[in-house]
Task: inverse folding
């Protein structure tokens, strides 16, 4: 990875490590950490602290048979299958979300493609493909949106985001990402609420509300 | 664990300076008489045990890891509200994962305690999430890579400094850290339990971590 300049905010990294983030965000963060040495170092530093706290806890008494039970289990232990590896531009957590298959794009119009990886009560996770120089329709979202660039780049009012960079957009950000000139931009995007496209919704609602 | 020790003497402060690594163990040894702390030498030993499990499937070494970590893992799980029987089961799970996943342990990047903590923490998280926590891709080391003893020792020294920095926190800060790192509590619930406003808790955790980071920053930027 050349040079990652947009990282995961520390509070969010910590929430990820504590398991309190919605699943779509957790996947984006695991994917970013896979690509970003700085954020990986942060996560591992936190684990060092956790390990230090663990080591200094007062020990609790174990069941008498606990040790024997475990050693008996070693004989029949079946090692878990090795975790999926990354493939091409997709780091392992994205391959997990793709269930090991290459993406199956759906056309959205204007050359933009997407594959929805998950969409449920915790939010949505999708891959986006934006042709070079093309804009994603201006949109806002009810909650938080995390976008990790996997290939190419995009720019919006917040700056330029290249491979490995993450944009954290809160609900008050109205933004229009435009893919860079170097080639198609592929992103992993997570929201904790459905996206609302500014330009589209008023047009759809106009006949109903006569606005 | 005793929380009395704020490091105030000049030689204790020196322990945080990278050019005085020797004084870390000196401080640790001197404190050992009154605190249940672990010296860097013992810590390296734990890492050696885990390496013996990884490389030679050494059951005696695994037994030593079990004897040290299993009772502390149980304490961590009891803290998070598991009943005794469930905590026992999860300890079994976690230690079995230690055995099964030992091949993934890299002593250049983690000490045994940090690596085991992460397995336990993720297991703890999986207990209350509907889906397993997505994990970052493993870093792949070249097959031929020789272990770098100096780097492994440096990890042990960093961890010793981290523990020294921990002792430099107030008891309230340490307890807030334990809440954040050992209990299955989202940050927003901490205030309900301790009766402290959330802002205070958050700043306390941040303050504690900032301080730890400052103490570790020169080591990490190496």
Result:
């Amino acid at each position: 990875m050349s040079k990652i300049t947009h990282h995961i905010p520390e509070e969010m990294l910590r929430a990820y490590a504590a398991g309190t983030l919605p699943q779509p965000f957790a996947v984006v963060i695991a994917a970013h950490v896979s690509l970003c040495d700085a954020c990986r170092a942060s996560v591992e530093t936190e684990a060092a602290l956790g390990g230090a706290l663990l080591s200094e806890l007062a020990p609790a008494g174990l069941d008498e048979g606990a040790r024997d039970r475990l050693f008996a289990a070693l004989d029949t232990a079946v090692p878990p299958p090795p975790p999926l590896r990354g493939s091409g531009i997709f780091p392992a957590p994205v391959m997990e979300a793709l269930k090991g298959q290459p993406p199956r794009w759906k056309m959205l119009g204007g050359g933009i493609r997407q594959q929805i990886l998950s969409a449920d009560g915790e939010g949505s996770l999708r891959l986006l493909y934006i042709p070079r120089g093309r804009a994603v329709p201006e949109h806002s979202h009810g909650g938080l949106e995390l976008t990790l660039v996997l290939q190419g780049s995009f720019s919006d009012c917040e700056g330029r985001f290249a491979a490995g960079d993450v944009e954290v957009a809160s609900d008050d950000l109205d933004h229009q990402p435009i893919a860079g000139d170097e080639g198609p931009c592929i992103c992993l995007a997570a929201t904790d609420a459905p996206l609302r496209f500014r330009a589209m919704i008023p047009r759809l609602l106009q006949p109903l509300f006569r606005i | 664990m005793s929380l009395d020790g704020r490091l105030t003497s000049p030689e204790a402060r020196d322990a945080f300076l990278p050019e005085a690594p020797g004084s870390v163990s000196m401080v640790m040894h001197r404190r050992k008489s009154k605190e249940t702390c672990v010296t860097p030498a013992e810590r390296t030993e734990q890492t050696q045990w885990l390496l013996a499990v990884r490389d030679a499937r050494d059951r005696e070494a695994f037994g030593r890891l079990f004897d040290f970590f299993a009772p502390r893992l149980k304490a961590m799980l009891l803290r998070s509200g598991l009943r005794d029987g469930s905590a026992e089961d999860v300890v079994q799970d976690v230690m079995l994962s230690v055995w099964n996943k030992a091949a993934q342990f890299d002593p250049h990047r983690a000490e045994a305690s940090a690596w085991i903590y992460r397995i336990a923490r993720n297991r703890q998280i999986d207990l209350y999430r509907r889906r397993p926590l997505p994990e970052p891709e493993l870093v792949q080391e070249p097959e031929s890579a020789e272990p770098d003893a100096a780097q492994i020792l440096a990890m042990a020294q960093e961890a010793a400094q981290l523990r020294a920095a921990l002792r430099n926190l107030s008891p309230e800060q340490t307890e807030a850290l334990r809440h954040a790192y050992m209990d299955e509590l989202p940050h927003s619930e901490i205030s309900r339990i301790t009766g402290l406003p959330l802002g205070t808790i958050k700043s306390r955790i941040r303050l504690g971590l900032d301080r730890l980071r400052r103490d570790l920053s020169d080591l990490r930027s190496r």
Q: What stands out?
A: Residues 53 and 101 of chain A are 40 Å apart (CA to CA). The two ends of chain A are 48 Å apart (CA to CA).
